[in-house]
Amino acid sequence: MTAKRAIGRHESLSDKIHRHRGVLLLISIPAVLITLVVVLMPGASTSVVEEYALRNSEGGGGSDSRKYAVIFDAGSSGSRVHVYCFDRNLDLVPLENELELFLQLKPGLSAYPNDPRQSANSLVSLLDKAEASVPHELRPKTPVRVGATAGLRALGHEASENILQAVRELLKDRSRLKTEANAVTVLDGTQEGSYQWVTINYLLKTLGKPYSETVGVVDLGGGSVQMAYAISEEDAATAPKPLQGEDSYVREMYLKGRKYFLYVHSYLHYGLLAARAEILKVSEGSNNPCIVTGYDGTYKYGGKAFKAAASPSGASLDECRRVALNALKVNDSLCTHMKCTFGGVWNGGGGGGQKNMFVASFFFDRAAEAGFVDPTQPVATVHPADFEKAASQACTMKLGDGKTKFPLVEEDNLPYLCLDLVYQYTLLVDGFGLKPSQTITLVKKVKYGEHAVEAAWPLGSAIEAVSSP
Ligand SMILES: O=c1[nH]cnc2c1ncn2[C@@H]1O[C@H](COP(=O)(O)OP(=O)(O)O)[C@@H](O)[C@H]1O
Ligand SMILES: [Ca+2]
């Protein structure tokens, strides 16, 4: 019975084919022609092969779920690019051997205040290499962002806008990457601080946990310094209202299913290189107790020159501390809030989110140069007091002995080693109110699986870029 029905169906199918052979011929001729064109056209056949190769190289996972992001960090002292690749769970996946492509060069965009085109062109080599690391067919889907920080902030609106416009044109002319609206901007300081907080907590896998289990961050750049940490909803409700033109103290963020209230503040002109100028301004053209004994020169910052000369009696830790406190404006009479850091800025109220502090950028670099952390390790556990201890040695040395006493310090930094270390100690203890004995983590990179990723704000920006629809 079954066999009979099958035969019957076979017969009727061939009958049908026979009856409709004219229509079938009409359909099949264009189909064959289209197939021939697709296979023979050079462009089309290349893309078919490339997609196949990509799928194979990814072990069958498919490229569809992978998202790349290219983020430029246009910092005050240099430009850098980071390329990240995320899987569909928003976990980082390796590009080649590392979890990110990271390239950097000096100087930054703000070194060309009067030549926007040259400023933008300084990014060309970074752009070309970053783009080349993104698979061909994913480039038009891959967001590229350029975030400029303190260097362009300090240049003022017109000069910085001209440079950003030249960067937008460079991306349009030279790149196939996707530029969203507002992809090329000066980040405001609170944005920069919150991206840094997201970066570190993402890499530590503390995102999604209660706020008191997250870590706080300090990022000491060349031009500005940021602090960010999560606070309770109740503390957020009591945050002082920002004055007109100021950034608000609290950002609400929704991450991994949890709402966070992030205290964040950025201090323009208090990055390490800018703070040198502030400290030299205090002694206004005369000798300065922070300058290493035996040095007499000028310090250039932001297009201005400052006299940087040691006093005949040499540098002094105590006197340098006084000058640093003066430059920081650690002065309670400025504070109209319950408790301030410095310059009249609210301190955020402290709490569990500030218990563990991850302190990045120049804090790590100077500690490594001064020799009390290992530069080959991604993180180091120290205490603010370690900066004071190193400062007491730097402030009593003679310039001529610098190279033997501190062999890792870059030559240009030697005259300023006492100043830098005193400033860093003063910033942590008198500025941010940390105890000298508190354990803090100096961080250059954060381990993520077998790899380590740069502890810098661009990852936070990349996560936002690939999460938005
Ligand atoms: O990706 C990074 N990884 C580690 N350190 C970084 C990275 N980007 C910047 N830094 C640190 O920041 C310092 C310079 O700050 P930057 O030029 O970004 O100033 P800004 O943040 O005030 O604009 C560098 O010397 C370095 O210590
Ligand atoms: Ca920076």
TrEMBL record:
It holds the Pfam family GDA1_CD39. One of its GO terms (molecular function) is apyrase activity. It is found in: Golgi apparatus membrane. This is apyrase. The gene is LOC108856226. Keywords: ATP-binding, Hydrolase, Membrane, Nucleotide-binding, Transmembrane, Transmembrane helix. Coiled coil: none annotated. The keyword Mitochondrion does not apply. GO terms for biological process: nucleoside diphosphate catabolic process. Belongs to the GDA1/CD39 NTPase family. CDD domains: ASKHA_NBD_AtAPY1-like. The chain crosses the membrane at residues 21-41. InterPro entries: GDA1_CD39_NTPase. ATP binds at residues 222-226. The active site is at residue 192. Its EC number is 3.6.1.5. PANTHER family: ADENOSINE/GUANOSINE DIPHOSPHATASE, GUANOSINE-DIPHOSPHATASE. It is a single-pass type II membrane protein. It catalyses: a ribonucleoside 5'-triphosphate + 2 H2O = a ribonucleoside 5'-phosphate + 2 phosphate + 2 H(+). It comes from the Eukaryota. It comes from Raphanus sativus. One of its GO terms (cellular component) is Golgi membrane. It is an enzyme of class 3 (hydrolase).
